[in-house]
Amino acid sequence: MNKEIKLGTEEYLEVAQQTLDKTIRLIAKSVNNGLANTKDDVAMSFSLMVGPILDTSNSLLVLSTMGKMRDCYSLSRIIFDHVLNLGYFGAKGEETVKKALQHYHQKAFRDLDRKIEIKDLAFGIGLKDIDKAPISDKLKEALNYFTSNKGFEIRSWTGDNVFKKIEIIRDYYGKEIGMMLVGYKFVFHLPTFI
């Protein structure tokens, strides 16, 4: 029976939830069957990013069954950002993946001693004397690359905004994929819906 289900109905939501659940399981099975490969930067970065996408998708599934749609929008934005970066990796190639991994490593190191200061307000957490710890040349290079001339951390690893990423992905994968991303960007245009 080929029954049309009306958008916005309970039945539509149930079918969408079942589809999401099956998709999560299929992707998880693919990743668990050997996608992670420490000798291949592209495969490794893909597997590192798929985990959070699957975790957040599971949370999205749970919240949607509880009718918590406001929270679902916020989680969908996180998924969109990860999927956008995966497409960007594929379109830009291995050098971009290496740059992202370099950013990831220096960020992880910096997060060992993170603090924020605004006038007389300060808060932080970290390991004592981490700045004196011996580090590899590779990490030193990454820290230098992602530090501005004024000594501040450069937080963007691409230099491309969301619109430029979509443009690059569209040029590489085609108009249909680009249009899907434009649609998602239109719906999830704000970082949060608070």
Structure explained in plain terms:
With 194 residues, the protein is mostly helical. It has a domain at 1-92. The protein has seven helices and two strands. It has helices at residues 10-32, 41-65, 69-92, 94-110, 137-145, 162-173, 175-187; strands spanning 113-118, 121-126. Helix 1 (10-32) packs antiparallel against helix 2 (41-65) and helix 4 packs across helix 5. The longest helix has 25 residues, at 41-65. The mean pLDDT is 86.
Q: Could you list some keywords that capture this structure?
A:
194 residues; 63% helix; globular; mainly alpha; two-stranded antiparallel ribbon
Report the β-strand fraction as a percent range. 5-15%
> Counting H and I runs of at least 4 residues, what is the number of helices?
7
Strand-and-helix sequence, N→C?
A: HHHHEEHHH
Structural class estimated from helices and strands: mainly alpha
Please outline what is shown here.
By secondary structure, the chain is mainly alpha-helical. Helix content is 63%, strand content 6%.
